[in-house]
Amino acid sequence: MADYPPASLSEGVKKLPEWIQLGCGDKEYNCEEKGATFLAANLPEKLPDLSEHNNIFAEAMRANPGIYEELKNKTTKLGVNIGHCIKTGIDNKGHPMIKTCGLVAGDEESFELFKPIFDPVISARHNGYAADAKHPTDLDVDKISDTKIDPTGKYVLTSRCRTGRSLRGFRLPPCCSFDERREIERLVVKGLKKLEGDLAGDYFPLAGSRSFGEKPNGMSSEKEEYLRERGNLFQEPDSTLLLSSGCGRHWPDARGIFHNNDENVFVWINEEDHTRLISMEKGDNVKEIITFVRK
């Protein structure tokens, strides 16, 4: 197994451009070619100039320049500092017409410990969202209209519903360690393997992952192509937004896809969330796909 994982790169990653490889190994993303050189491991006394940045994080910092000084010496119980959260917003200036958040949470505590920056960014992203607001959840499918989206059946090929969930007690994908990511995979797959009936299925680690004993080299190339052709495969981060966030580290280890035998329910593990749940059906039956999500 040489030194992969976790210290070196997988054979698949070695075929990618160097600027992507730099974000898929064991270290924090540091790429001069892309201007991604801010390091959470070595926080500066003062922030770089954000006057030409066009993301929500930079706007909040310009509105309240004292935030960084207030937060720079704080660290969550799991070891996340403010640098881990803002690196992607500093490395990526953004575009005035395509405004990203420029901020990620390293763990659950980040939202509270670093609330002076998270609260204004979340509020701006959602056009006003109070710090004590609670997101309403209503999965009553009977409240969904019976009106056909595409009564002709000519235009809607498939419909899908997607949501993300994370496991309490673990750092989130931008900051989780190699061992944490493997434990998340183990716990989630253990639960999914217990599903029965129309939710019963199997788990397929990404090609090259060595974390899952039943498939020690990940899914086959044939399975990979099959999922890709149907839009159900996720792949390595190929943008500096994601690479700077830290989501690409140790790629593709402990990442994979579970799907049921009918291939209409998918769970992506350790992509941008701990889990991403997807329900899909051919046609425009929205009630049916949300019914699966409720299960």
UniProtKB/TrEMBL annotation:
Broad enzyme group: transferase
Entry binding sites for ATP: 158-162, 276
Segments traversing the membrane: none
Swiss-Prot/TrEMBL keywords: ATP-binding, Kinase, Nucleotide-binding, Transferase
PROSITE patterns noted in UniProt: PHOSPHAGEN_KINASE_C (PS51510), PHOSPHAGEN_KINASE_N (PS51509)
Highest taxon of the lineage: Eukaryota
InterPro entries given in the database record: ATP-guanido_PTrfase (IPR000749), ATP-guanido_PTrfase_cat (IPR022414), ATP-guanido_PTrfase_N (IPR022413), ATP-guanido_PTrfase_N_sf (IPR036802), Gln_synth/guanido_kin_cat_dom (IPR014746)
Pfam families: ATP-gua_Ptrans, ATP-gua_PtransN
UniProt record, GO biological process: phosphocreatine biosynthetic process
Coiled coil: none
PANTHER family listed in its UniProt record: ARGININE OR CREATINE KINASE, PHOSPHAGEN KINASE C-TERMINAL DOMAIN-CONTAINING PROTEIN
The family this protein is said to belong to: Belongs to the ATP:guanido phosphotransferase family.
Protein's recorded name: creatine kinase
Organism: Oikopleura dioica
